[in-house]
Amino acid sequence: MVLRPTPSTWTQGLNMPSRLFSDRSGDDYELYEEDDEFVLTVDMPGFETEDISVTWDDGVLNVAAEHVDEDRGQKKTYHRRFRFPKTVADEEIGAEYRNGVLEITLPIADVTTRGEEIPVEG
């Protein structure tokens, strides 16, 4: 007899095993909006500050890390991308790594213009 995991409520209607949609790393991040900024916290234990790379490219935040333990011959990696629904003031993004947790603050840009106005002829 093969035991199958109980599907989550959103995968119940799909004809696929729920394990295809499971996240083996668990909930390793939290993202919320507070005081006109996004705050992203990522649990990244076992890395050093110099192991972590945070980049911003056209509305996408890329968080990557790689740590090599030469004594044990092990390599630990992390990579995740985040897209944001609002315009972020990219020159004001800040990141801090403390006690195994990376916290990134992304201030929301105050965008008042809606593009270039096009004259209507008629």
The third-level CATH topology of the domain at 32-39 and 48-104 is: Immunoglobulin-like
| Total helical elements | 0
Instruction: Calculate Rg over CA atoms.
Output: 20 Å
CATH architecture group name of the domain at 32-39 and 48-104: Sandwich
> How much of the polypeptide forms β-strand, as a percent range?
35-45%
Helix content: under 10%
The coarse silhouette is elongated
The neighbouring-strand order within the major sheet is 1-2-7-6
Query: How many β-strands, per DSSP?
Result: 7
Category from helices, strands and their pairing: mainly beta
Largest sheet: 4 strands, antiparallel
Structural notes for this entry:
- Residues 4-25 have low confidence and may be disordered.
- This protein has a domain at 32-39 and 48-104: Immunoglobulin-like, CATH 2.60.40.790.
- β1 (29-34) and β2 (37-43) form a beta hairpin.
- The relative contact order is 0.19.
- The chain is mainly beta and 122 residues long.
- The strands form two sheets. It has a four-stranded antiparallel sheet with strand order 1-2-7-6, with no helix packed on it. A three-stranded antiparallel sheet has the order 3-4-5, with no helix packed on it.
- The chain is built from no helices and seven strands.
